[in-house]
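Example record

One chain of 133 residues, shown exactly as stored in the release files.
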Amino acid sequence: MSTTEEGQSAGPGQPVEPAQGRPSGLKNPVRAVRSLGAATLILEALVLLLAIQPIRLVGGDLSGTAIGVIIALAVLAVAFSGLLRHAWAWHVGTALQGLLMLASFLHWSLGVLGFMFGLVWAYVLHVRRTILG
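Predicted structure tokens for this chain:
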């Protein structure tokens, strides 16, 4: 026989109610989700900055405008990683992925990075929705 949260026994065939506190098992689910989003944006900024030189060497001509866009997107990713405590910052993070995909007009490899990080961001949003509801 199983017991409920109040310590009362649940009879056979009676469901045991789940604990109402933390369904995810995390001590602070909001902080965990925010940290996941921030880590993703920081990683994106790092990859963008580290990709400049390989794109220039292997991928062909990378204009000064494209380098400026890459640096601006990396700075925005770092800035908004610290603002994810606000609900609107999650929407800005999504828009950031779209801007990176639009940067494919400057160089095709930026579109590839945008698509990859768009998929990662979609997974982060899925985890956020699953944990926080």
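Notes: The mean pLDDT is 83.
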